[in-house]
Amino acid sequence: MSVQFLLDGDLVEIADVDPTATLLDHLRYRMCRTGTKEGCAEGDCGACTVLVGDLDGDAIVWRAVNACILFLPMLDGRALLTVESLAPAGALNPLQACMAANGSSQCGFCTPGFVMSLYGRCVGASGHDLPVADVLAGNLCRCTGYGPILAAANSTGPLERDDTATAVALKALRERPAASGQHGDRRWFAPRSGADLADLLADHPDARMVAGATDVGLWVTKGLRSIDTLIFLGEVTELQTIEESPAGVRLGAGVRYADAHAAFARLHPDLGELIRRIGGLQVRNAGTVGGNIANGSPIGDGPPAFIALGAELTLCSRDGRRTMALEDYFLDYGKQDRRPWEFVESLWIPRPDPQAIIHIAKLSRRFDSDISAVCGAFHLAVADGIVTGARVAFGGLAATPRRAPMCEAALTGQPFTLATVEKAADALRADYAPLSDVRGSAAYRLDAAANLLLRLWHREQGQAVSVLGLEAVHG
Ligand SMILES: Cc1cc2nc3c(=O)[nH]c(=O)nc-3n(C[C@H](O)[C@H](O)[C@H](O)COP(=O)(O)OP(=O)(O)OC[C@H]3O[C@@H](n4cnc5c(N)ncnc54)[C@H](O)[C@@H]3O)c2cc1C
Ligand code: FES
Ligand code: FES
Description:
Layout: E1 3-7, E2 10-14, H1 23-30, E3 49-56, E4 59-66, E5 79-81, H2 94-101, H3 111-122, H4 132-135, H5 146-154, H6 164-173, E6 179-183, E7 186-190, H7 194-203, E8 208-210, H8 216-221, E9 229-232, E10 242-245, E11 248-252, H9 257-267, H10 269-276, H11 281-284, H12 289-294, H13 302-308, E12 312-317, E13 320-325, H14 326-329, E14 330-332, E15 335-336, E16 343-350, E17 357-364, E18 374-383, E19 386-395, E20 402-403, H15 405-411, H16 418-431, H17 442-460, E21 471-472
Parallel strand pairs: 1-5, 7-9, 8-9, 17-21
Antiparallel strand pairs: 1-2, 3-4, 3-5, 6-7, 10-11, 11-16, 12-13, 12-16, 14-15, 17-18, 18-19, 19-20
Flavin-adenine dinucleotide binds near residues 216, 291 and 295.
């Protein structure tokens, strides 16, 4: 079956698709759309930024994503804009003219990526309401410096787009049956329902599921791995839902971080800030909540916070569903409690008591678009000055995201005082035996973790700490 999508509103059909061919390579080498650049091929620099559009009712919602880690089948049934789309007759559009007028480009290698991110902002794409620095956090420029680029951004207002015809064509395109294909020995599927996904996994338990490909993409572009069978999750309806209630939030595993941001921020502002710092906007526009959990990374940012908030994970297969406390999902490094034929279906996070003390902190060497050295989350219940419950979890301190039982025991049942917090911070050092690596030494990590608990205390006393405790560290 061919992959079909709309480029500038026109149908593009690609037969015999290599399921791990990237959109970037296809654009550059097959379609001669060389405006989209390859800088890093790992989702970091934004030189390859394109806008991908999905139907939302009768409208199209555009998302800036990195083409270098987007596999072609992930584009099936969607719309695409590249930098060439912005000046079809050769004349610069107003944003491009502003970039030129402000001297926002030198070698020009990064420029198409910046233009696409900013164009997304001008036409109301996902994340357009973020401050411009956030919109551009996933775009790197080596020569110009960001001043002229920000000047161009700030002197360009909203731009009109009429996507009516594209939306109609996209609706027609999506009436096709679920896509699948074979390329040599390699197969791919894009099921549309949880039941179909469960059947496919039962038949192909060795298949690799791909949600946003912000991890899997790098296995291919950097790890040069070959994957025989891929199941793309982006079309599975049940995985895309967000249900908010007074009791909590249930997120389908396929919900993109950018789409979940508002619901997370309503659970607690610290959680919103944490999510805002996952990758750049392009990564959050593709990467999913389920992928962040299922990959089992010891330094994934979501899991420590979700664990501290008491989240539960639901797995699904043809045999039925299983629900577990999220912390029980992580068994050991690279090992999770998931059978090969199960998929992560949803995450449930109970809404915290408004009186609860919650402190979530990500420490990374660079503020924007960087993986954590240490990510910690504290969730305390305090009644009449006594800590009646404590959930503390960290990433970056062990082989998996993990709770801190000794620290929790040192807090629970004790008066909420500096002496208790200091004791608990000491206990925290005994909970973990972290490794030293490029992101931080073991000693630094333990010091940082203990200091985050002390910071919680000072914040609760109304003392000034950096905004929400989220900041970059050096060392
Ligand atoms: C430049 C860059 C910056 C990043 N920054 C951060 C960061 O700051 N913080 C952070 O935590 N992460 C970061 N990441 C990592 C990544 O973006 C996240 O972990 C993301 O949430 C992964 O989701 P995904 O949908 O892209 O996963 P994929 O790459 O699609 O999949 C990852 C793994 O999960 C499995 N999987 C996916 N969905 C399911 C499911 N429903 N059921 C079972 N298995 C499933 C896949 O088979 C695969 O093993 C970054 C990545 C990049 C490229
Ligand atoms: S080439 Fe750097 S993000 Fe794609
Ligand atoms: S202008 Fe050269 S990298 Fe940005």
